[in-house]
């Protein structure tokens, strides 16, 4: 293995890893080397450009800590997260589509009874959310565990604040025997993904913005069904066509109706505006 040139080096690297004990590891690294080398050849990568890429990845690493995952953000904004999500969640077209998890899910969110308040003081306009969880054949899914989380009207998740004493705008509830669920929360607003780091610089260099259309996250678990990680979007949001992380599916866009005043779905009377939103989720049966 000497005198390798720009043409023979790829085969030499592939040969060097031919004895990789785990076949899947070999498949992944063979693909990685093949495509990385092809990429460098295709764009005629210069030494300066290669060094900038190394500096960029180093900065991504330095920005990452237990609160900020700049590598996942890089994957999200390059569309890789959504590609992997799409490949991992092929399912019948009647089922609710999956989309990216995002970095703001946390375990141990507070339990919320059906009809309860998820917002817990998060700033935003009152919103009544309801719907059903069903299976592929329309059967109600009872006792589905539903994790819900969202940003507030300032575009921030609770975990992005320094000194909050308790979680807010997130909760866990369970569907009723007929599959129904309902809770109050706040109206989601568009927000930019964190862009004060190297990924933000990359977006700027590419002439891209950092915004996500307004959405409400759901993660739903029920026995006998595949877990569903998704979110629902608001019709007419200005960023539906240019989501910074490529997560929008048209089947996940819903109508959020604003009411100037009147009787809300829970029978309460309101003198000030409130919003209602209904959405049904269809779970895929667990794969054999
Ligand atoms: C989110 O929707 O919470 C999110 C997804 C990807 C990157 C940043 C935020
Ligand atoms: Fe989000």
TrEMBL record:
One of its GO terms (molecular function) is ferric iron binding. Pfam families: Dioxygenase_C (PF00775), Dioxygenase_N (PF04444). Residues 129-157 form the Intradiol ring-cleavage dioxygenases domain. Its cofactor is Fe(3+). Keywords: Dioxygenase, Iron, Metal-binding, Oxidoreductase. GO terms for biological process: catechol-containing compound metabolic process. PANTHER family: DIOXYGENASE, PUTATIVE (AFU_ORTHOLOGUE AFUA_2G02910)-RELATED, INTRADIOL RING-CLEAVAGE DIOXYGENASES DOMAIN-CONTAINING PROTEIN-RELATED. Belongs to the intradiol ring-cleavage dioxygenase family. This is Catechol 1,2-dioxygenase. It comes from Caballeronia udeis. The lineage of its organism: Bacteria, Pseudomonadati, Pseudomonadota, Betaproteobacteria, Burkholderiales.
